[in-house]
Amino acid sequence: MDILNLGIIKALPVPLPPLAEQLYIVAEVARHVSFVREVEAQVDANLKAIERLRQSILAKSFFRGLYIMIETIALTLAVKQHSLLKRKKDKGDFYDY
Fold first, then answer.
1. What is the pTM of this model?
2. Lowest mean pLDDT among 44-53, 56-65, 70-79
C-alpha cells in the first residue's frame, strides 16, 4: 500500500467546469458577497439607530422620573407645611396679619 504523498495528489485528476461556467460562478459569488455586505451595512445602521432610540427612551424615562420625584417632594413639602401651619394656628403660635 502506497503512502499518500504530494506526487500522488498531483497525479489525481481534478475535474473543472468550462471557463465560461467558472466565470459565471465567480460572478454569482461576487454578487452574493456584495449583497451580504449591503445587508451587513444596513444591519449595522439599524443597530446604531436602535441604540440611539434606546438611549433617548432611557433619558426621557430618567427625566420623567426626576420630574415625578420633584413633584412628589414638592407636594409632600406643601402638605407638611400646611400641617405645620395648622398646628401652629391651633396652638395659637401663628398670627394672621
1. 0.52
2. 56-65
